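User: Let's play a game. I give you a shape written as tokens, and you guess the letters that built it. Ready? Here's round one.
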């Protein structure tokens, strides 16, 4: 079985083709990068409408497959920006109708988690999903992914992006902050905001901007933001492991690209006698392969949809969707 998956929830348009054994047969991705400021939903959606047809062609030709060899079309139903979601959903519906294949809606957050889980080889790990809009500590239970803790305000990635843009940079902020942080060493004081199993970043955003305005060294500021924010995530992940009597952690989402976060979580997990795993970067960031793989899991349980019932769900949370494959 071969599934084609379409991702278009926010800044990234991506098409992935995946086998039933989770082999990535092809992945064609293009990220919308606003020349300045944050992401405007309509501009990003226009980018996706322009690029998705070519990305579908590229994914098919890279995988050496004809449309007749695709068994189903999966797409990200939510959560995300309405116009962006509709761009991907429209392409997916059109392909499913034209090729006469099942159409499978997929939750974007569950897809980040499932691609990371299958690549880890771990059956039931604790999951740290750290991305642009979401920051969640997740465990599976009673037919769904359960959010044990999460951000109370900004997603960690949105926090990094917003901070970097306010400091004069362009989207995305995570990678340039990581590059700056590698040259920093002094730990500047920033709000450390952990509330039980939850975290918050808006206080750190305000404090970091104030330090920047006072002329703090960029590398030290970036080092301090990363150290403080990732310590918060590591702490809530460790608390979840302790409560659930687990040892293994799997990271997913775009911020899981970050070497410091990977290292801190690994040190914590290994200190408890466990392991941690993060996928290759292209599969941490938004990608069509994770949608295809989760579509495959869903299709095994008959979760395809007629076009008329396939409306996008911009607010569909991780814990709102059933996972009968688990
Ligand atoms: P969500 O999954 O919550 O809907 P998203 O889909 O918008 O969010 P992803 O593609 O999963 O986001 O992740 C993008 C985020 O990852 C951006 O905020 C970006 O700054 C961040 N990011 C990418 N690389 C790194 C890195 N090396 N270090 C830290 N953050 C990073
Ligand atoms: Fe994402």
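Assistant: Ready! My guess for every position:
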């Amino acid at each position: 079985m071969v599934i084609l998956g379409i991702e278009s929830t926010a800044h990234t348009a991506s098409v992935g083709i995946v086998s039933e054994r989770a082999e990535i047969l092809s992945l064609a991705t293009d990220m919308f990068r606003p020349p300045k400021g944050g992401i405007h939903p309509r501009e990003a959606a226009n980018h996706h409408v322009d690029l998705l047809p070519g990305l579908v062609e590229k994914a098919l030709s890279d995988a050496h497959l004809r449309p007749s060899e695709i068994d189903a079309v999966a797409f990200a139903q939510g959560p995300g920006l309405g116009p962006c979601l509709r761009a991907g959903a429209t392409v997916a519906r059109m392909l499913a109708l034209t090729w006469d294949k099942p159409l499978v809606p997929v939750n974007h957050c569950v897809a980040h988690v499932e691609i990371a889980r299958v690549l880890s080889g771990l059956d039931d790990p604790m999951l740290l999903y750290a991305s642009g809009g979401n920051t969640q500590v997740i465990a599976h239970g009673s037919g769904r992914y359960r959010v044990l803790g999460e951000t109370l305000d900004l997603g960690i990635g949105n926090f990094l992006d917003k901070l970097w843009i306010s400091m004069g940079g362009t989207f995305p902020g995570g990678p340039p902050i990581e590059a700056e942080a590698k040259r920093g060493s002094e730990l500047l004081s920033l709000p450390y905001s952990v509330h039980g199993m939850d975290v918050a970043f808006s206080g750190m955003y305000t404090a970091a901007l104030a330090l920047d305005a006072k002329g703090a060294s960029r590398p030290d500021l970036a080092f301090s933001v990363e150290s403080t924010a990732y310590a918060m995530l590591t702490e809530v992940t460790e608390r979840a492991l302790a409560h659930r009597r687990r040892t293994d952690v799997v990271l997913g989402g775009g911020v899981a690209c970050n070497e410091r976060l990977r290292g801190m979580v690994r040190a914590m997990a290994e200190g408890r006698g466990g392991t941690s795993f993060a996928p290759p970067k292209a599969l941490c960031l938004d990608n069509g392969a994770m949608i295809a793989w989760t579509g495959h899991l869903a299709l095994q349980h008959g979760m395809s949809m007629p076009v008329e019932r396939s409306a996008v769900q911009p607010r569909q949370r991780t814990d709102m969707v059933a996972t009968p494959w688990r």
